[in-house]
Structure formats: C-alpha cells, structure tokens
C-alpha cells in the first residue's frame, strides 16, 4: 500500500529515450531473475510470499554540498534507510515482485537540503507466461538528490527529482529467434525549491528482434520512438523546454564468450526533433549515430570488472536533452580475505541541445572497501571525487565525499 501511494504522487513527468528504457528494463529483469533463482536470497516467508528486509545508516561528509565554484560549503549528512524485496510465485509460471529502498537525508548545517529519497531499482513487476510469450507489467520509481549525478546541470543547484516509469513489455521466444516489444510512460517531477526544471511526460515505444546464430551469439535489429511533452510552467523562461519527438533505428549483438565473459553492442542512428511551435523554440534538430558497448568479465577469483561506453542523445536526468559520450569502468578486487574492494571510474562529455547550449566534461573516481562484521551486519567506507568543467566557467566545480555505511540484514 505504501508503494501504491508513492506511485499515486506522480503527475507530470519526464522520460528517457525509448532505447535506453528498453536496455534499462532488460537489466532490471535480469537482476530480478538472478534474485529469484535462489529462495535463500530472502529471509522471511509469509505464506506463499518470500520477503527480504534490511536497514542501514550512511554517514557522509561532503565538502561542497551546493556544487559551488567559489566558497564551497561542507556538511555532514546522515542517511538512515530501509529496504525490502518481495517475491510471490502466484502460479508455477507467473510471479509478482516488489522492491523498495526508502531513506531520508538529514544535513547537519544546510537543513534546507533535507530530503526523502527512493533508491533506483525500486518498483513493482508482474511476469505472466502465455505459451511462447512472456508478458511483463512494471512500474519503477526513484527520487534522486545528488545534483552531481546530473552532468551538465551546473553548480550551485539543489536538483531533486522524482522519476517514474510505468509500462509493459512482451518477449516472444521461438528458441532460435527472440522478439521484444513494449511501451513505457516515463514521468518526471521536479522537487527542487526555488529555481525548478520543467515537469514533463514522455511516451516510449520500442521493439527489437534477434536470431541466435550460435547458442552463445544473438544478433538482431532494434527501433524506438519517443514523444516528449513539457509543462512549460517553469519559474524561469530560460529553463522551459520545447516539446519534441525522437526516433532511433539500429542493430545489436550480444555474446556469451565464455562462462566468465559476456559482451553486448547496440549501435544505430537517432534523431531528436524539437517542436518549433512550443513556448521555447531555441532548440535545434539533433541527429547522429548512437552506440552502447558493455562488457562483463570475471578474470579469476581475485578480480572481476565491467566496462560500458557509448554515445547517445536523450534527456539524461531532470529533463535536459543532451548529446554526450560516456565511459564507465568498475573493477572489483578480492585480494584480502573478508574484504571487498572496488575502484570505479566514470567520464562523460556532452553538449546541451537547447537553451543556450553549453558543453561540459565530468569525471569521477572512487575507492570502496566493505566487509562483513557479523553474520547480519556489514560495513563499508568509501571516497568519491567528482570534477566538472563547463564552457560556462561559473558552473565549474569539484566535490569530495567520504562515506561510512552500515547495513543490517534481518
């Protein structure tokens, strides 16, 4: 009931490009399948439903909470959180799954930044199998508050957004051939105080079809289309966005190279077409190629890593259309008994499509160390450095974040 009430809060909203929605849905479904493979993943049985509960407390020190270029303001942030997951096998083939991560950020000094947040991956999903068809109904929701995750937004902004994606997808499995098609309604609501980004809504259609050339190799074609509609009621005319439509067509391939390595590549052509009759018609057509490459590799028992890189034109976060390149590298190290290390790195460079286009460059690197303290309690300490430079020099900033996190599994 709590989740349903949260979904009911969503009104106007913003979306992502159809292809990105499709890929995100695939990843979420794969994560869900892995969790369902073992009932031991859950820690409480209530009739036919399996539940997993955990709670945590994260304590951060951020030396630039408002992402200012000059006179940065540091603060301590306390983030208590509660997480739950549920798996309900309604029948032998149909199942209902729920996931919710809910927390609160309390700032010691800058209390106007206090905020409730909902972790990415929260939502509800229902799988129905009919013959060779798998039908998935889903609703995913999150509230994000870390403005540095909105690349290109600039400093000195408290950007908090609620995003919700509801829709359905159908997978048709014919053994040698697989086809997927679906629809998503993606929503965005700005929760920031003062200067706000425009609320918006998008309608996304996507389809892809592939053939298994070999048992470990799948290749095929993909296409998608999106309609973007903005509220046009932003408190600043410079933030208003023109309504737009976008389409893409391309090809993809995925391969399980070995038991320890898998790759996927999506590539094609996309076009972003703003409506020149909208309230703000400063945007120009943006078209070009897109690609997204991902690799996952377990080298040995001491190391595994994942890599992703690509180019895209889409809304990113907060409803701002951008064309950008990105690269992310996530290595995990198991070189000390009982300790897990990771050293993530990411880079992104892009240009805004509309509203006085500005280019930006952001890179981030970090170190994370975690270990189990008891059978149910685990702890982690991490450090993250983020630096963003912009063609508008007043939007440059750097930020250092040190975190201590405890998690308890009931």
- Please outline the major beta sheet: 20 strands, antiparallel
Q: Whole-number radius of gyration?
A: 22 Å
Report helical residue fraction: under 10%
Measure the end-to-end span.
Answer: 22 Å
Count of the domains: 1
Instruction: Label the overall shape.
Output: globular
How much of the residues is beta strand, in percent? over 45%
How many distinct beta strands?
20
User: In CATH's first tier, which class applies?
Assistant: Mainly Beta
List the uncertain runs.
1-16
User: Architecture in CATH?
Assistant: Beta Barrel
Structure explained in plain terms:
This protein has 410 residues and is mostly beta strands. The chain has a single domain (2-409), classed as Beta Barrel (Porin). It is 6% helix and 61% strand. The protein has 2 helices and 20 strands. The protein has helices spanning 2-8, 18-36, and strands spanning 44-46, 49-62, 75-88, 95-107, 115-130, 133-144, 161-173, 177-190, 200-214, 217-230, 244-258, 261-274, 286-300, 303-314, 322-333, 339-342, 345-352, 359-372, 377-390, 397-409. The protein has a 20-stranded antiparallel β-sheet that branches. It is globular, with a radius of gyration of 22 Å.
In short:
The protein is mainly beta and 410 residues long. It has helices at 2-8, 18-36, and strands at 44-46, 49-62, 75-88, 95-107, 115-130, 133-144, 161-173, 177-190, 200-214, 217-230, 244-258, 261-274, 286-300, 303-314, 322-333, 339-342, 345-352, 359-372, 377-390, 397-409. The chain has a 20-stranded antiparallel β-sheet that branches.
């Amino acid at each position: 009931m709590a989740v349903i009430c949260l979904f009911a809060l969503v009104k106007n909203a913003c979306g992502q490009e159809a292809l990105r929605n499709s890929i995100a849905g695939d990843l979420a479904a794969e994560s869900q399948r892995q969790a369902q493979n073992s009932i031991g993943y859950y820690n409480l049985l209530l009739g036919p439903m399996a539940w997993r509960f955990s709670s945590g407390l994260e304590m951060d020190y951020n030396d630039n909470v408002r992402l200012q270029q000059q006179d940065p303001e540091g603060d301590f942030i306390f983030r208590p959180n509660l997480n739950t997951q549920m798996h309900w096998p309604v029948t032998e083939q149909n199942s209902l799954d729920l996931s919710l991560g809910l927390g609160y950020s309390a700032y010691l000094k800058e209390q106007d930044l206090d905020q409730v947040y909902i972790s990415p991956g929260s939502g509800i999903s229902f799988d129905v199998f009919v013959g060779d068809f798998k039908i998935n109904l889903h609703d995913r929701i999150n509230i994000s508050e870390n403005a540095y995750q909105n690349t290109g937004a600039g400093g000195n902004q408290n950007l908090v957004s609620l995003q919700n994606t509801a829709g359905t997808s159908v997978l048709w499995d014919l053994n040698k051939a697989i086809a997927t098609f679906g629809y998503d309604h993606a929503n965005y609501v700005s929760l920031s105080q003062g200067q706000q980004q425009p609320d918006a809504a998008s309608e996304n259609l996507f389809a892809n079809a592939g053939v298994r050339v070999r048992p470990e190799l799948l290749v095929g074609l993909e296409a998608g289309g999106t309609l973007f509609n903005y509220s046009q009621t932003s408190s600043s005319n410079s933030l208003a966005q023109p309504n737009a439509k976008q389409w893409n067509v391309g090809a993809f391939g995925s391969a399980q190279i070995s038991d320890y390595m898998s790759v996927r590549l999506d590539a094609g052509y996309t076009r972003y077409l703003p409506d020149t009759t909208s309230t703000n018609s400063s945007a120009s057509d943006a078209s070009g190629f897109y690609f997204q490459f991902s690799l996952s590799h377990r080298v040995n028992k001491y190391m595994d890593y994942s890599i992703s890189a690509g180019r895209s034109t889409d809304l990113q976060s907060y409803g701002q259309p951008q064309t950008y390149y990105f690269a992310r590298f996530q290595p995990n190290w198991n070189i000390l008994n009982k300790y897990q290390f990771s050293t993530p790195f990411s880079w992104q460079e892009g240009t805004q499509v509309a509203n006085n286009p500005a280019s930006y460059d952001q890179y981030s690197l970090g170190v994370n160390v975690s270990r189990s303290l008891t059978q149910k309690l685990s702890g982690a300490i991490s450090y993250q450095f983020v630096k963003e430079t912009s063609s508008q020099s007043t939007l440059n900033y750097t930020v250092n974040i040190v975190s201590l996190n405890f998690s308890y599994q009931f």
